[in-house]
Automatic annotation (TrEMBL):
GO terms for cellular component: DNA polymerase III complex. SUPFAM superfamilies: P-loop containing nucleoside triphosphate hydrolases. It comes from Pontixanthobacter aquaemixtae. This is DNA polymerase III subunit delta. InterPro entries: DNA_Rep/Repair_Clamp_Loader, P-loop_NTPase. Gene3D superfamilies: P-loop containing nucleotide triphosphate hydrolases.
Amino acid sequence: MTMLGHDEPWKQWRDACTGERMHHAWMLAGKRGLGKMHFALQAARELVAEPGISQPEGGHPDIIVLDRLPKDDKEEKKRVEGKPYETKRNIAVSQIRAVQQRLTTRPTLGSRRAIIIDPSDDLEKGASNALLKSLEEPPAGTYFLLVTHRPARLLPTIRSRCRILRFPTIPDGELAKLLNEKAADADPATQRAAIIAANGSPGAALDFVERDLGALYSLMQRILEQGDPDFELRGQLAQTLGARPNRERIQATLDLSRSVLANALDSADRTSYPAIVEAHAELVTLTGQAPTYNFDAGLLVAEIGTLLASAAPLRERANV
């Protein structure tokens, strides 16, 4: 199944596969929620398959996926049981080292092996340096697919050794069709808000509906339009987020707040531009810090609310 926006990436990938020399490292770059990991898995299966060799239906011995591990034994038990679980903040150097040990052996079924790292943005420093060594001297028949939402977080030396495959955002009309198919039970107002908040990402639009982020979105819009001089809206924002939100809900809240500000630029007058741009830049920084800092959820949502209030019209910015 080809996902929305994947036609051009597939063309580039398959053209490369049939060329004389396939590049050994690829960076799959684009916003979160564009289906890059789905593409990576399907592309890896095509890459390692060879005529006359039967391929397994499920997990493949020549496709290695590195992602964030469960954060402790309790969360590992949840993963084994097929339940939602919390992960560590980063992909560790020990995971890269373990893969490098496997690369000293031949692929199991054919002559090719694929290593997928999702997301490569979350490699800890030691892991990035270890990966760089493998990219500099890749074993024969080994190919790397680095899924990345924020390419700038990768080492320049890693980026320079990868061929970039960019995934485009999706027009609002296509997102509306997707939500009509996949989230038909959602009311029209929620669907419209999901499209605005997703900013071109199908995964983000569906996530908006599934996580019931409509109330958060409405509060953010009110803070941005009205300010919050008595801190009442920021208190409601904290209550709506919840006392102990998991990392995924926090990330979705940060992404949503950036989308609210980005979309505000379309209708803002020029005098409001500097405040909106500055608040958005601060939220980008906060989003980058969130995976590696142990933020208190209440303080984090208060900071989000304060940044939104700082971008409200001048007359509404009192006590931000």
